[in-house]
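Quick review question:
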């Protein structure tokens, strides 16, 4: 945004910290997914509190378009560590994946404070993550493809959270 044009990075992060929302985003990184950068960029755009990379520490930053400098990005070596972190903060894990038995995102009351969890492009949420999520939500689709890419799904889910909690008084 132009408002930050001549600011130092630390000042931008400090200002953003006063405005961040109470949702976090976690994404699994077992196979070096190229969509993680896009998820980080989208988390920055929607004001997520932080992004959590679960699995491999290295990820392709190209899609983040340098927004990882302004977004809090945490690493968890595995699901156990993410779950422990979330439990310490009493944050429910909400998985997003088009799986049998998942609940439509469009009808689910997203918690104000939560971690939206996304799987890898292709395999989706791992079985281990599915088992620890408080809910697994699907995004309604009407075409012939089985799923949308993880970066697009993350954008849809974050926007649903913003609509539910940022604009709730405006409705």
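Suggested answer, residue by residue:
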């Amino acid at each position: 945004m132009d408002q930050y044009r001549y600011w130092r990075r630390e000042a931008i992060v400090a200002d953003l910290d006063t405005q961040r929302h109470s949702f976090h985003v976690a994404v699994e990184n077992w196979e070096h997914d190229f969509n993680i950068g896009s998820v980080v960029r989208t988390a920055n755009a929607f004001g997520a509190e932080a992004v959590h990379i679960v699995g491999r520490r290295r990820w392709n930053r190209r899609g983040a378009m340098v927004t990882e400098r302004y977004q809090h990005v945490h690493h968890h070596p595995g699901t156990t560590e993410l779950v422990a972190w979330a439990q310490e903060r009493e944050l429910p894990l909400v998985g997003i994946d088009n799986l049998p038995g998942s609940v439509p995102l469009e009808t689910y009351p997203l918690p104000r404070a939560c971690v939206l969890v996304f799987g890898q492009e292709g395999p989706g949420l791992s079985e281990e993550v599915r088992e620890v999520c408080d809910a697994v939500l699907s995004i309604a689709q009407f075409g012939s493809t089985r799923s949308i890419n993880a970066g697009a799904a993350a954008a849809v889910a974050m926007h649903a959270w913003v609509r539910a909690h940022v604009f709730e008084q405006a409705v």
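Why it works: The first helix runs from residue 9 to 17. DSSP finds five helices and seven strands in the chain.
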